[in-house]
Every structure is written in C-alpha cells, then in structure tokens.
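Continuing the series of single-chain predictions for the mutant panel. This is the parent chain; the variants come on the following pages.
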Amino acid sequence: MKILFEVRTPLNVTIRITEEYWRYIVEIKHKIMANKEHLVKEILAEPDEVRRSLIDKSVFLYYKKFDRLYCVVAKHLNDEGFIITAYPTDKIKEGEIVWTK
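Parent structure:
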C-alpha cells in the first residue's frame, strides 16, 4: 500500500494515510472531503485544538477552523498513527483537551 502522506503533529506523533484508505474516505464515508488533502495535512500539523476520545484513549480528534470547522480523527500507536476519518463538523465533541494553540 502506498502512503499518500505523513504529517508530524504537535503531539510529536507522525500520522499517515494510504492512497487506498483516502479513496475510501472520499468515495464512501465523506465525499465532501474530496480534494481536501491539503486541509487534512494542515489540521494535523497546525490544529486549533486536539482532544482525546472518551471511548478509545488511543484515538485523538484534531480540529481546525477554515471556511468551517473540520475534524481529523487519528489513532495513535506510540509515536506514530493513522487517520481513521476526516469530515466537516458543526461542533467540537466532548473529550479531554490534550493540546490547544
């Protein structure tokens, strides 16, 4: 599987996504994210806020506001991880705030 991109986050975790999984996100899960790879990279590199999931402590939600608020959900495995999904949202979910700008 070919890596589409990797981004180092302020939490010092390298998050990656494969071309195949990105296609799955933009063709099946969240079509609105098509051609928004640049936003996802920026959200991970320079988020406004990062929260830890209430359900899974190894899942982190990265938020950043552009034309609207976006969320990138990533699973952390020590100092690396992968994107689970990415989508526009109306509000920030509950969870422990682990980083803010």
